[in-house]
Amino acid sequence: MFDGINFRGAQLASDDNMLPDSQKGFAPVIHGIARGTAQVSIRQNGYEIYQSTVPPGPFTINDLYAAGNGGDLQVTIKETDGTRQVFTVPWSTVPVLQREGHSRFALTAGEYRSGNDQQEKPKFFQGTLLHGLPAGWTLYGGSQLADRYRAFNLGVGKNMGDFGAVSLDVTQANATLPDDSHHQGQSLRFLYNKSLNEIGTNIQLVGYRYSTRGYYSFADTTYSRMSGYDVETQDGVIQVKPKFTDYYNLAYSKRGRVQASVTQQLGRTATLYMSGSHQTYWSTGKADQQLQAGLNAAVDDINWTLSYSLTKNAWQQGRDQMLAVNVNIPFSHWLRSDSKSAWRHASASYSMSHDLDGRMTNLAGLYGTLLEDNNLSYSVQTGYAGGGAGSSGGTGYTALNYRGGYGNANVGYSRSDGFKQLYYGVSGGVLAHANGVTLSQPLNDTVVLIKAPGAEKVKVENQTGVRTDWRGYAVLPYATEYRENRVALDTNTLADNVDLDDAVVSVVPTHGAIVRADFKAHVGMKLLMTLTRNGKPVPFGAMVTSASNQSGSIVADNGQVYLSGMPLAGRVQVKWGDGPDAGCVAEYRLPPESQQQALSQLSAVCR
C-alpha cells in the first residue's frame, strides 16, 4: 500500500512463511452441500489440486493451496451412489487479498536508507494491516509518520469471480519538501487481475494511480534539494556518469500512472508477453514511458526469443528503443541421451540487437558448464557492432564463474567501442561456530551448518560446488524457513575408509536461523566379518559392538556382520541375550595392505 523503502531499525511483522502451504497466499473458500458422505475434488487447469471426503450436509474448504495469479476452479462432489455435482468457482487475486479470517500486519520503526547522498536519513514509523473478510473481501490500511511527513491509507480488495480481482485504496499525505514548502494531497490507486485460462491469457496486473497536485511520497521529502541527479557515490566520488533517467525535480509532482502486464500462451511451446507503464506529472506535458514486449518459443530443445523495449524519460529528448533476437541451441540436440561428452552441458547462441539510432550488434557465442559438479561456468561471445553514434568494430566478452565450497570467484574480459575491460571478483561467507570456523559460498538469511567430522571432501547433494572441508564441515548457504529441509551427503564421494550411519538429515529452521545437521561418520576399515562360536555361526540378530562402533551392528545369516570405522586389529563384543552364556568376544587382526581395500572380509572365532 506504500512504496517499499530500505531502513535501519526494528520491525515486528507477521510472516506468512510460518503458515502451512495450504494457508499461504490467497485462495477462495469453497462452500458446498453433500447429500451423503461424499468425495470432493477440485481441479485447476486440468490438474487435480485438492481431494477430501466430507460428511453429509454443508461443508467448507479453506485450506486450498494458492496457485499463481488465479484461475477457475472446477469442484466435483461425488456421492456414494455415483452421482456427481459439478460447479465452477472463478477466482483471481491481487497482492493485497487475504484469505477469510487471516490477518497480516507489519510495524516498522527506524531510519530511512537509500544509498543516495542526495537523500537524508530521517527517522520514521510505518504500520500496515490487512484482514480477510467473508465473500472474498479484504480490508486494509496503514500509516507513515515522520517529522516532515504524514500519510494514512485505507483500501479494500475483492475477488469478483468471473470478473477477476480488484483492489482500490486512497492515501492522504501531508509533506514538507526541502524548500520548506508544505503540501497536502491524495493518491487513489486501482489494481486489477484476471486469468482467462481457457484461452491462455493472464492479465497479471493492470493498475492506475491518480495523485492530486499536492501529493508527495515519503521518499520525496528525504531529498536535500528540490532537483538534481540520483547518482551513486563512494567516498565522495561519483562512480557513474549522471543520466537523464537519474534526474528528479520535486517541482513536478506525479499525477497519473497506468501500468499493465499481460501474457498469452500460444500453443504448447510459445508465450507472448507485454508490460508497460505511463507516468505523467503536474505542471508539464512530459511523461515517463516504458514498454517491454516479446515472444518466447521453443522447437524441440531449441529456444528463441524476439523482444522489444522502449524507454522514455520525461526530462530526456528522444527515446531509447531496442529490438533483439536471441537463439540458443544445446549441443545435446545432436548427442545421444546417454552421451558422457563434455559438450552435453554446452550450448551455442546467437543474438542480434538493433536500436532506432541505426546501431546494430551481432554476437555468436558458446556457453556451458564444466567439472564434475558443473560448478565452473563459462561464456564466450564475439561479434561485430556498427552504425549509429558509436564506433564500428569487433565486440565480445569472455567470462568464467566458479562456485566452490569455500566461496565463489569470477573473471572476465570484454571489448567494445574501442574500450577493453578486465574484471574479477571473489565472494563468500565465514561462519564461526562452536567447532571452529567454516568458509562457504555467500550466505543468505537462513543457513545450515553440516557437521560430519571425519567425512572430508564429501559432496552435498543438490548443491553446486558445496563439499565438506578437510574437517568434515560445510555450509548450506540457504534454507527454507519453517519447512523441512532435506540435507543429504553423496555417499558415492565418501572415502573408502569412511562410512555414515545415515546419509540424510532433516532440519526445520526458523527465519534467520543457523541450524546444524549432524552426521555421524565412522573412519576406519570396513569389515564383513563371519563370527563363529563352538564351530557354529553366532545367533542371527545378535548385536556386535566395538570401541569404535558403539552404535552396534546386527548379525545376519551365517554369522555375518558388517562393521565400519574399524582399526586394523581389535576386538568385538557379541551379545544375543542377558544370560552369562549369551555373549562372547572375538579378536581379529588384518595385514597392513588391507587398508588399500574398500571392504575386507575375514572370519573370527568368538570366545
From TrEMBL:
It is found in: Cell outer membrane. The keyword Zinc-finger does not apply. It is a multi-pass membrane protein. PROSITE patterns: FIMBRIAL_USHER. Pfam families: PapC_C, Usher. Keywords: Cell outer membrane, Fimbrium biogenesis, Membrane, Signal, Transmembrane, Transmembrane beta strand, Transport. One of its GO terms (biological process) is pilus assembly. Gene3D superfamilies: 2.60.40.2070, 2.60.40.3110, Outer membrane usher protein FimD, plug domain. GO terms for molecular function: fimbrial usher porin activity. GO terms for cellular component: cell outer membrane. It comes from the Bacteria. Signal peptide: none annotated. Residues 528-592 form the PapC-like C-terminal domain. InterPro entries: Fimb_usher (IPR000015), Fimbrial_membr_usher_CS (IPR018030), FimD_plug_dom (IPR042186), PapC-like_C (IPR025949), PapC-like_C_sf (IPR043142). PANTHER family: FIMBRIAL USHER DOMAIN-CONTAINING PROTEIN YDET-RELATED (PTHR30451:SF21), OUTER MEMBRANE USHER PROTEIN (PTHR30451). Belongs to the fimbrial export usher family. This is Outer membrane usher protein fimD. It comes from Raoultella terrigena. The gene is fimD_4.
